[in-house]
């Protein structure tokens, strides 16, 4: 995964709305769900977030473009070419996401001793949003569509300081 940081002044209204949600002091899970509801109310157009070159992605792997970062939360646009995927991982904080294009196929896992148990799968399509919080956030995401996928992610962490939302990568056997 490659990460870039972009200043996006046109994200000001969305950023203020997320900041107001975070300031409410909800639990991490409720914060993620409330931000996901905000995303469902009106996701921005891909062209408002990224340049044409950024929307093309990178043949080497998916790219995360940090659009806003501060200590309480960060906003990133993730670009996935067809077939690109993450490793199996969990996160340092809550996350909400909205799919703008492509299909994000998510496989969910739970740690079962020294292995992972697959506990679910979902196809997240354009216009759909969701949220989660640790613990219970182990997953792998893959763009299963024939087009470049773009999704907007909001994390309860400062990606400008951390560089990534990934807490741990899981390289364990998987049971279904």
Automatic annotation (TrEMBL):
InterPro entries: CDO_1, RmlC-like_jellyroll, RmlC_Cupin_sf. Signal peptide: none annotated. Fe cation binds at residues 89, 91, 139. Keywords: Dioxygenase, Iron, Metal-binding, Oxidoreductase, Thioether bond. The keyword RNA-binding does not apply. It comes from the Bacteria. There is a cross-link at residues 95-155 (3'-(S-cysteinyl)-tyrosine (Cys-Tyr)). One of its GO terms (molecular function) is ferrous iron binding. It holds the Pfam family CDO_I. Belongs to the cysteine dioxygenase family. This is Cysteine dioxygenase. It comes from Spongiactinospora rosea.
